[in-house]
Each structure stands twice: as structure tokens, then as C-alpha cells.
Amino acid sequence: MRREQYEAREIISTLYSHSEDAGGFFTEITGGMGSFKTGALLLFADYAMNNHPTEKCFFSEAYYAPLQSMKLKKDKIQYFIKKDSGVYFTNRDTGKETNLKQKVFKDYADLYEQAQPGKLNVVFFGSRLEWMQFIAWLRTITGWVHVFIDEMSEICPAWEGGDLLSQIKEFARVCKDIRKCMMNVFYNTQTAGEIDWRVRKKIMCHIYLPGAHVNPDSGVWQKAVGRLQKDTKRGNQAWLEMPGMFGLTRFEKFYKPIKGQHYDARIRRGEE
Fold first, then answer.
1. Do 183 and 147 form a contact (C-beta atoms < 8 A)?
2. Helices marked H in 77-216
3. Rounded to 10 degrees, what is the CA torsion of 31, 32, 34, 39?
């Protein structure tokens, strides 16, 4: 085994080592269009559910876009909607509103109580910005918890001002507590520059997929990322980086849309 492959295995092992000394990890997955960003997110979520079935996993999805969690088996998913948020689900094949056996919650404590360990608890607050407050609240939980966010730029966008900027600054302070509060938070993005820099400064592990732009202070060369292989049969390669470590791996498991499971989440007009 080559050194970079060994180090990639070490990094992946460390991400889910559940060491109370090391704590949790704040991880960014980035790459170009079609580079397996969402697939990688689902891969880590799947790993958490299968290997830590007594712990709770939460997943954040975009509105008006196909539900990515539907690429998993139905028995692995549970949907949640905040009371009075106006969120509903639509069958994208028929255009009709549909029921996904979603549960309704009134506050964070109620959501956490209803969330099922060993499943992907997909949550819709009505505003994606509320994930900043929910992650902050999760610091009060005793024990390990996992959060997976698709398209982080919608939650803490760059170049904001006013009250939202204040919220993002506070969230950046929260992010430094992820490690010691035994949380694993993974997110993906196509354009890292669209995420507030204060939040990105707290990242502990970077995963670079084909088309990614590395950080200026990264130990991974941009040319190395440019040589990453995209392979629809074998899976895409990726560089993984933690402080003092970087390694090369290939994500071999695929997550494709399942026939007949083509849904999205929407918000009723006047309630967005």
C-alpha cells in the first residue's frame, strides 16, 4: 500500500475514532459538479448509521431540489417538519403534494426526542438558517451526535451583513466547540468561497474531490487535485487532509436515485 493510501485510511479511521481525547470533527467536502460530493456525504452518514447504530444522525437538505436522502433505503430515513413552518413534500413526477410519513416537532428538544438512532433524521425547519441554532443547541446533548449538511453555503453564506452576519459570527464561535462536544459535522459545497470565512477557519478535515480548489495553506497541491480520477464504474478519487496528514483514496460506493422515489420539500407561499 502506498503511503498516501495508508494516510487516507488513517484519516478516515480518525474521523470516526470516537476518542474522547480527540473529540468530534468538522469536515468539509468540496469538488466540482458531478464529483460525488453528495455521495460522499451519504457515504459518511451510512457509515455512522451502520457502525454507531445507537447514536443519532441529522441531515439537512435543500428546498425545491430532489431529496438526496432518497438515495438511501426507505427504512433508513425518517423525515421531520417543524410545526407551522409551511413545509410540505411534492412528488416531482406527478407534481402533487405527498405524504412521506413525516413527523412534526415543536422545538429542538422535541425533535431530538423523536429522532431515531441508527436512522438518517432529515429535518426541515422552514429556513435553512436555523441549522446554525440547532447545531448550537446540540452542544447540550450528552454523547455522540452526527450532522450532515448538503450545500452549506445556504446556511452560513459569505458576504452577508446585519443580523444574519451576527448569527454567522456566533455560529463560527459555536463551531470551535464541535470537537469537545463530541459532534461530527460534515458538509459539502461546490464553491467554498460562498461560505463565510469565519466558519471555514474552524474546519478540521478537508476532503477534495475532482474539480475542488485547495486552500492556499493546504499541504495538498492543486495540481494533485487536478489529476484526481473520475470513474463512473470504480468511483472517484479524493484527497483527504488533516493537520500534518494527507492521503489519497477512492470512494467506491455509489448512491443513485431510486426509481419511484423522486420527491422534494417546498414551503407554502407567504411562509418562506
1. yes
2. 108-114, 131-138, 162-175, 197-200
3. 10
Cα 106 vs. chain centroid, distance in angstroms?
23
Q: Quote the CA–CA distance of 213 and 165 in Å, as a whole number.
A: 25
What's the topology of domain 24-209?
Rossmann fold (3.40.50)
CB of 52 closer than 8 Å to CB of 16: yes
How is the chain split into domains, by residue range? 24-209
Amino acid code (one letter) for 69: S
Rounded CA-CA distance 211/175 in Å is 26
Q: pTM of the prediction?
A: 0.95
Pairing, β 263-267 against β 77-82: unpaired
* Each residue's pLDDT tens digit, 127-165: 999 999 999 999 999 899 999 999 999 999 999 899 999
* Sequence-distant (≥ 6) Cβ neighbours of residue 222 within 8 angstroms: 213, 214
